[in-house]
Every structure is written in structure tokens, then in C-alpha cells.
Specification:
With about 90 residues, the chain is mainly alpha-helical. The protein has one domain (about 5-80). The chain contains three helices and no strands. The longest helix is centred in the N-terminal third of the chain and has 18 residues, at about 5-20.
């Protein structure tokens, strides 16, 4: 694509986001933690620990993993057991 146009659109989105959420809660995480809404610190902490990703990124990553899992007819699901604190449908 057009890199210059892409960067312009990205900055336009970021400016609108900053304006819209200046005084609103933008954090989609449902867990109550002291870093709620503070993306920089939250991501920095998760990067430092390197154990898992922030809750807000999980739907995006899960969507990508689901597509990859199709390569093995989702048989990986039989090998995965979620931690007790994760509620499944």
C-alpha cells in the first residue's frame, strides 16, 4: 500500500482516539488491576514478564491462532487445558 497515506490515516485515528477518550475509560480489560487504562505500563510489565499477553490483546491473537489451528483441523484444542481462573463457555 501507500506508506505515506497509511501513516496519515494512522495519525488521524490516533488523534481522534486521544480526543474521544481523553476523559473516558478506553481499556477493554474486565479485570480490576492497578494498571487498568494505563497501556504503556501494562504492556511494559507484560513484556518484562514474558509469560502472557495483556487481556486486551487476547481476542486479536486468539483470532490469528484459530486460523492457524485450522491447518491441523483444530486438534490442538484437545491438548490445551486453560488455567482455573479462565472461564470457558
Amino acid at each position: 500500500g501507500n506508506r505515506v497515506e497509511g501513516l496519515r490515516l494512522q495519525e488521524e485515528f490516533a488523534a481522534e482516539f486521544r480526543k474521544e477518550y481523553k476523559d473516558k475509560d478506553h481499556c477493554p480489560c474486565l479485570k480490576a488491576c492497578r494498571y487498568h487504562g494505563n497501556c504503556k505500563e501494562c504492556v511494559a510489565i507484560h513484556r518484562a514478564h514474558q509469560e502472557h499477553v495483556p487481556n486486551c490483546m487476547r481476542p486479536l491473537i486468539n483470532k490469528k491462532l484459530k486460523l492457524m489451528s485450522e491447518l491441523t483441523e483444530h486438534t490442538l484444542a484437545n491438548e490445551i487445558e486453560a488455567p482455573h481462573e479462565i472461564l470457558r463457555k
